[in-house]
Amino acid sequence: MHSSLWLSALIALPLLGALVAMLVRKMPGASYAVAVAVGAIEVVVSVIVAFLYSSHVANAGTFDFVSRHVVSAPLGLAYDVALDGLSLLMVVLTALVLLLSLLGGRDKRREPAFVSWLLILTGLTMGSFVSHDVLEFFIFFELTLVPCYFIISGWGGAERARAALKFFLYTFTASAFLLVGILYMGFAYQHQHPTLGLTFAYGALSTTTMSHSVAVWLFIGFALAFGAKAPIWPLHTWSPLTYAEAPTAGSIELSALLAKLGSYGLLRFAVGLLPLAQVSVRPYVLTLAVIGILYGSLLACVAKDLKRFVAYSSLAQMSFITLGVMSGSTIGVTGAVLLMFNHGIITIGFFLIIGFLERRRKSIQIADYTGLQGPAPVMSALFTVAMLASIGLPGLSGFISEYLILIGTFTTHAWWSAVAALGVLASAVYLLWAYQRVFHGRAEGANAEIADASSAERWVLVPVVVLIVVLGVFPKPVLDRITPSVHNFVTQVATAGAFK
Amino acid sequence: MIGATLALPSIHYLVILPLLIFFGASLFLLIASAMWRRTVPMVFSTGVTVAASIATLVVTYFQWRCLDKSGVSTSIAHAVVLDGFSVVATAVIAISVGLAALVAHDWAVRENVRGPEYQILALASSAGAILMTQANDLIVIFLGLEILSLGLYVLVAVDRRKGESAEASLKYFILGGFASAIFIYGAALLYGATGSTNLSTISYFLGSNVVLKPGLLVAGGALLLVGFAFKIAAIPFHMWSPDVYEGAPTPVTGFMASIVKVGAFAALIRVLISGLGTELATWRPILWVLIVLTTVIGATLAIPQRNAKRLLAYSSINHAGFILIGVWAGTARGSAATLFYLATYAPTVVATFAILTVMGGLGDERHSLESYRGLARRQPWLGASLAVLLLSQLGAPLTAGFYAKYSVLAAAIDANGVALALIALLSAAIAASFYLRWTVVLYAEPDDELDAARVVVPRATAIVIGAGVVLTLVFGVWPGPLVTLAQHATLYFTP
Q1: Chain A / chain B CB contacts < 8 angstroms
Q2: How many domains does chain B have?
Q3: Is residue B484 included in any domain, yes or no?
C-alpha cells in the first residue's frame, strides 16, 4: 500500500497555492504564475498517483493510499482518504481542469482573488473525490459551493448574481436531503453496533442493516442531492443559466468537473451504500436518464447561445453516465466511469473554444457567428475533434465509453438501452447542425475578420486533443486500472442487494 | 427540608462566585460613579467589566476542577446547582459580556454617551443570565429572568436622545412584563400540581407518582414554555424582537442577542429535562411545532428585510429554532449540542453586531443593506470578516456554524426526528438566500452615488471582530475539543 501522503498532498497543494497567490497579490502577474505552477505540479502528482495506484492491496479491497484519522469522536468526524479505480480518473481530471482552465480561461479582473478561488475549489473537489468517509465527503462536497458561488457572482456575465444564487440554493437545498440521509445511516449503524462510537466510515456504513423501504427513502434523498448536481432531468433547470453566466473557467469547472461530483456521488454513495434499493428504484432512475438524454438533445438543437448549447448537450451526456451508473453491470459502470473522464475532457475543449470566440467577439449567440471555417481553420478543426468525440465517432474517446454504457445497460435493461441509443443519433444531429451554423457558410463583416487560434490557445487545446485520440485508440491501460475496482464494486452491490 | 427554614442554608461560595463577581462589579461601578467627583472615566468602567469577565472565566476553571474532583453539587437549599452545563454556560456568558463591553465602549465614545450606565446595567443583566444557568428552582429562574430583563429594558434605551430606542424599550418592557407574568403563573400552577418549585423535587415527584389529572401540570408547563419562547423569540412569540433589535443601540442588540439566548436556553433545558424529563412525551410535540414555525417562518420573513439589524433579528429567530432542536431531542447528545451551539453562536453574533456598530456610523443609523455595497472591495479585512461570520451563520462547512447545526441535527436524528431535521435543514436553505445576498453586496462593485467612505474600526472593536472570526474559524476547522467539552459538561445532567 502506498502512503496516503500523496492524496493529502493533492488536497493541500492547491489550498496552500491559494494562500501564496493571495500573499503575492501586490506583484502583477505573480498570483497567476503561482497558480499555473501549482496546477502543473498538481497534474504531475495526480499522474504519478495514477501510475502508482495498485488495485491489489491486502485488507483494503481495491483501495490504495488508505489512511484514517478520527478528528472528533463525538461528532463522528474523521479525515479518511483512499483511492480506487472509481476515483482514479476523477483525480487526474480535477488536476487537468485546474491547469487548463487557468491557461485557457485567464481572467485579468482581480486576478489574485480569481485564481485563489479556483485553487481552493480544486483542493475541495480533490478532497471530495478521495474521501473515504461519508461525512467527510459531504463536507468537501458542500464546501465546493462557496468558491463556485464567488467565482460565478464575482466574474460572471450580466445576470451573474441571479445565476449564482440559483445554483447555490438548488444544490444547498438538495444536499439537505443528503446530510439527513447520511446522519440517519450513521445512527442506524451506531444503534446496531452500540459498542462502537459514531462513525461514518464508508466501509462501516456499507454494512448497515436496514429495511427495504428505508433503503428506498434514503436512495431517493441521495439521488435528489446528486441528481441536482449531475444534473439529472428534471433537476437540471439551474444549469443552463449558470453555465451561460459563469466565466469560462467557471463553466469549465462546473460542467467538466463538479457535475461529475454528482454522478460520482450517485455511484459511490447511493448505489454503493444502498444496494437494497437498487432493484426497485433502478427502472425509475433509468427512465429519468433516458428522458434526460432525449430532452437534452432536443433542447441542444434549439439552444440560441453556445454555452446553453453545451449545457444541454452536457445534460444528455450526463444522463448517459447516469444510465451506466444505474445499469448494474460491470461493463456499464466501467463505461460510466470512463465517460465521466472523457466528457470532462471534451467539455473542456468546447468551453475553451467558446471562451476564445467570446474573447474575440464578446458574444456567445450562435446567430452572431457564421462561416468561421474560412478565417479560423485551426479553431474549427479543434472544435471538430471535440465534436466528433462527443458524437461518439469510433477511434475517439467518446465512442468507447458510450458503447460500453449501452451494451452494459442492454444486458440488464434492454429497452432503456434501445431508446437511449437514439441519443447517440440525436447528438450527431445537434452537434453537426451547430457546427454547420457557426463554422460553415460565408464569413462576412466581423466574422471574416476573426483571428484564428493563437499559438498559446492551440497549445492549451493540445492535451485535450491528445487525450481524446489516445483514449479513443488505446484505452486499455486506463481500463486495466479501473476494471478491478468496478468489478469488485458491482459484485458487492449485487450480492448485498440479493441476500441482505 | 422543613428544619432548614429556621437556619440559614449552607452556602458553597464557589458555586455562586461568578454571580457575586458580576453583581459586585455592577454595584462597585454604581457606588464609584456616585462617589467620583466627575463622571467615571469610560476606560475605568469598561476595564471593570472586562476584569469581571476575566475573573469569572478563571473562576469557571476552578469550578470545573472542583466538578472533576467531587462531582455535581447543589447549594443554598438546592436552589442553585454546580454542574458542567452551568460552568460552560457561565464561561460563554462571561466571554460574551467581555467582548460586548469592548464594542459598547467604542460605540459610547463615538456617540458621546458618556457615563458608566451601559456597563453597570450590562453587568447586572449578565448576573441574571448566570443565575439562570445555575438555577435549580423555578423561583430562582424567575429571579434570574427578571434581573436579566430589567437591565435589558433600560439598556435598550441607554441612548436617551433616540426616540426609537425609547419606543423599542417600552415595547420590550410591556411585552416582557407580560411574558414574565405568564412565566410566574406557570410556575405557580406547576407548584400546585407537584407541591414544589424545586426542579429536582418536581422531577422526583413526577417520577414516583402517577398524575391522574394532568391538567394543572400541562397548563403550568405550557405557560412556562410560553415565557421562555418569548425570551428566545420563538415564533409565534417573536413580535417584539425585530423592533427591539432595530431600535436598540447596535452594541446593545449584540449583547442582547448573545446573553439572553444563553441564559434562557440554559434555564429552558434545565426545566424541561431536569424538571419535566418524565413528561417528555407531552412537551416534545409542542416543541416540534414551535421549532417548525420558528425555523421556517423566521427564515422566510428575513428574506424581504432591507435593514441589516432587522434581518439579523429574523436570522436569530431561525437560530433559536435550531437551538431548540437540541432541547427537543431530550437526550445527553441533544443537551451537548445545544451547549455547543450556544458556545459558538454567542461570539459569532457579538462580532457580527460589532461590525454593524462600526458600519452604523455616527448616529448609528446606516443600517440598510445597500450601505454595505462594495465593503469588501474598500476594506477587504472588514468585508471578509463579515463574510466569514455570515457564512458561519449560514452553516457553511469549515466554520463553527456548520458543526453547531450538524450537532443539533445529529441529536434530532438520533432521537428519531428525521422529519424535523429535514424541515429545519430546508429552512437553512431558505436562510442561505439572504445571507448570500448580503455577502454578494459586500463583494459587489461600489456604487459611486453612495457615500462610500471608509469606516473607522476602533481598536477594541477590531479585537472583538478578530476574536469572533478566529473563534468561528478555529472551531470550524478543529471542533473536537469544544465538542468534547460540551459532551463532558452534559454528562451528569440528563437523566
Answers
A1: 84
A2: 1
A3: yes
